[in-house]
Amino acid sequence: MELRSSHWFAGAGSRESWPHRSFMNKAGYPPDELHGKPIVGICNSWSELTPCNLHLRSLAQSVKNGIIEAGGLPVEFPTISLGETLMRPTTMFYRNLMSMDVEESIRGNPIDGVVLLSGCDKTTPAQLMGAASVDLPALMVTGGPMLNATFRGEQVGSGTDLWRYTDEVKAGRMSAEEFEDLELAMTRSTGHCMSMGTASTMASLAEALGMTLPANAAIPAVDSRRYAFAQRSGRRIVEMIREDLRPSKILTREAFENAIRVNVAIGGSTNAVVHLLALAGRAGVELELDDFDRLGRGIPRLVNLKPSGQYLMEEFFNAGGVPAVMAELGDLLHRGALTATGKSAGENVATAKSHDPDVIAPLTKPVKADASIAVLRGNLAPGGAVIKPSAASPGLLRSRGRAVVFESIEDYQNRIDDPDLDVDASCVLVLKGTGPAGYPGMPEVGNFPLPRKMILAGVTDMVRISDARMSGTAYGTCVLHVAPEAAVGGPLALVRNGDPIELDVPGRRLQLDVPESELAVRRAGWSALPDVAGGYSRLYRHHVMQADRGVDFDFLVGTRGSTLTR
Fold it and tell me: Residue 183, Cα to own-chain centre: how many angstroms?
């Protein structure tokens, strides 16, 4: 087969190729290394500002070893890295920018295929989106979860228990010094969150989509088996290049349906909705918001992990990980879907099984019988909204209350703990201005803390509605991703204090009980956000799509291929 890289390096004595070969000598590559061998890019999202991805440099070496063993030539290159814990305004603001960096770095360089190294929440979907748009052979290796944490003799999950103990501090039941001890205990190794948050979810769904080798998602970051896995992945990408096995052959409609159902079974993050929608758009696969509800209905939750359960990712790995979940789901999945192994999803998990039914339950005795992410519609969310019922309080899933409105995150921060705030346990807390365009970047603030006076009164949950996202490690009766968002004039912008709001999750309804005539008056008085001056922020504002379209840029939808005309 003719290698793509030969267009750079082939042709002895050629004026078009010798500069490319000559300058690669700086890295110690003799000319015969550069012609005839598959050249494999290692797309590394390592950064000291992305603590979850700190170990990817050493993981890259294991990938290189595998590539060399299989007769390929590895070339590592960096891209933008997105650290969920540090970046402002939010890493979601930069997900599309990272995907552009990945796409153009792959296309513009002499590589025949690529291994994607990711870890923290947005690095995984961003790399998959970029690779899908180029459509060269690609294989993902995620960094793995950090080790489990223990605090006061109790196993605690990153994010999940942080939210719980934050409320304890707010209520005066925990000191700042004790909370600092929790901080230190919570993050005791490299790797991403070890609860079933967004990072663990997207690693699992990359595997369910077929874009990784089996068992990728759950191996702990510091486990030697993670490095052996990376080396096997290095070997496999060379084979994929020779087989011309591209993302377009793997990322099919059947693969996305498998991912949606696996997300339900693992109790995965609501963030998977926007990321899978965006990735499907890049891959040219028709996928809609309502598919998540329709395809997820009747799918049980099999995995008993925080924030919707008891255990953490180490136990998930020991119990069999994603292969065991897919084996349990059986014919609920498209078992014939092609994967990066060159085999079908069913073949990959033919011998997999759960080794601990408390962690990965059998299909006949699930943790929860129907755990689908619910898609809500109504006059408050004509474009849809989502809620994760398994992380919500059952008694609030069908409720009605008066709105307590916060016009922005700053308004919320200024007033939420005011003892004179007019609020009771039956109220519906509404936060505006936190959507894709409005914040910007759709931050993970949808599980915003309750008013201090409610916490002191013993209230542990209230209905919360916003156009924001929520961390996959979080929980609560939180209606998220309301579309269209308030900042672009969606109905959420028109909600006022005291308005009655009805939430009916079983009926999939989210209704603002205000006459249309009154809403029309309010709409006439609404004013749009002022434009931004320039730079990436302006590009983002003008081209970002709403949550029901995956929050991608409109001009990035589709596959542009790997061909360079000049």
Answer: 23
pLDDT in tens, 344-382: 999 999 999 999 999 999 999 999 998 889 999 999 999
* Residue count (the chain): 566
As a whole number of angstroms, the distance between CA 493 and CA 156 comes to 38
Distance CA 433, CA 558 (A): 29
How far apart CA 474 and CA 308 sit, in angstroms, is: 9
SS3 288: coil
Quick count: other Cβ atoms within 10 Å of Cβ 160? 25
- Predicted confidence (pLDDT) at residue 32 exceeds the cutoff of 80: no
Cα–Cα distance between 128 and 518 in angstroms, integer? 45
Collapse the DSSP code of 254 into the 3-class scheme (helix H, G, I; strand E, B; otherwise coil) and give the result.
helix
Segment (H or E) for 279: helix 271-283
- Map tokens 């308004």 to a residue: 411
Q: Is 434 exposed, middle or buried (0-12, 13-18, 19+ CB in 10 A)?
A: buried
Are 9 and 34 in contact, with CB atoms under 8 Å apart?
yes
Q: Tens digit of pLDDT for each residue in 511-537?
A: 999 999 999 999 999 999 899 989 999
**pLDDT band at residue 166 using 50, 70 and 90 as cut-offs:** confident
CB 386 within 8 A of CB 375: yes
Of the candidates 287, 501, 262, the one whose C-alpha atom is nearest the C-alpha of residue 399 is 501
Q: How are beta strands 509-512 and 500-504 bridged, if at all? A: antiparallel
Range 452-478 average pLDDT:
93
Which of 342, 443, 435 is CA-nearest to residue 381? 435
Phi, psi at residue 403, to the nearest 5°? -75, 135
Torsion of CA 231, 235, 237, 243, to 10 degrees: -160
pLDDT confidence tier of residue 12, bands split at 50, 70 and 90: low
The CB density around residue 411, as the number of other CB atoms within 10 Å, is 14
pLDDT at 15: 66
Angle between the N-to-C axes of helices 224-243 and 56-69, in degrees from 0 to 180, rounded to the nearest 10: 50
CA 2 to each of CA 37, 254, 309, 438: distance values in angstroms, whole numbers, following the listed order? 10, 30, 51, 48
**Most confident residue range from 162-171, 188-197, 215-224:** 215-224
Distance CA 242, CA 410 (A): 54
**Distances 558 to 97, 215, 287, 353, 561 between C-alpha atoms, Å:** 16, 29, 13, 37, 9
Q: What is the pLDDT of residues 257-293, one digit of tens each?
A: 999 999 999 999 999 999 999 999 999 999 999 999 9
Residue 134 is classified by DSSP as H
User: Domains of the chain (ranges plus CATH)?
Assistant: 1-36 (no CATH), 37-147+189-348 (3.40.50.2300), 150-186 (no CATH), 374-529 (3.50.30.80)
Global pTM reads: 0.96
Give the C-alpha separation, 3 to 242, whole Å.
9
Q: Which two tokens stand for residue 185?
A: 């205990």
Q: What is the Cα–Cα distance from 402 to 428, expressed in whole angstroms? A: 6
